[in-house]
Amino acid sequence: MEKFSCEIHIDHALDMFVAENEDFPIMDKLVNSEKLSTKCDYCEEQAVYIVSSK
Ligand SMILES: [Zn+2]
Q1: Residue 39 pLDDT
Q2: Which of 36, 52, 31, 42 has its CA nearest to residue 5?
Q3: What is the pTM of this model?
Q4: pLDDT computed for residue 37 by the predictor
Q5: Ligand 1 mean position to 39 CA, how many Å?
Q6: In the 8-state DSSP scheme, what is residue 43?
Q7: pLDDT digits (tens, 9 = 90+) for 20-50
Q8: Is residue 40 helix, strand or coil?
Q9: Which of 3, 12, 22, 36 is 20 to 30 Å apart from 29, CA to CA?
Q10: Distance between Cα 5 and ligand 1 center (Å)
Q11: Which residues lie below 8 Å from residue 53, measured CB to CB, with a gap of 6+?
């Protein structure tokens, strides 16, 4: 599972990921082409980070 987050919501995204998956989250910055088409899961801003478990 993957979550997308802006700069503001990354702490929240990491907390939610751990709560939902009981797994250690890995955080990566999105590349520019991904940013343009991806919104934050918690607001309407462009996503900057992706949180996943692999
Ligand atoms: Zn956000």
Answers
A1: 96
A2: 42
A3: 0.86
A4: 87
A5: 8
A6: S
A7: 998 899 999 998 887 778 999 999 999 999 9
A8: coil
A9: 22
A10: 5
A11: 1, 17, 21, 23, 24, 25, 26
What is the C-alpha separation between 36 and 22, in angstroms, rounded? 30
Measured in Å, residue 12 CA sits from the centre of ligand 1 at 9
Report the separation in Å between the CA atom of 2 and the middle of ligand 1, taken as the mean of its atom positions: 15
Residues at Cβ < 5 Å from ligand 1 ion: 6, 8-9, 40, 42-43, 45
Nearest to 49 by CA among 35, 21, 20: 35
Show the CA angle centred on residue 19, arms to residues 15 and 25, nearest 5°: 60
Q: What is the C-alpha separation between 21 and 43, in angstroms, rounded?
A: 21
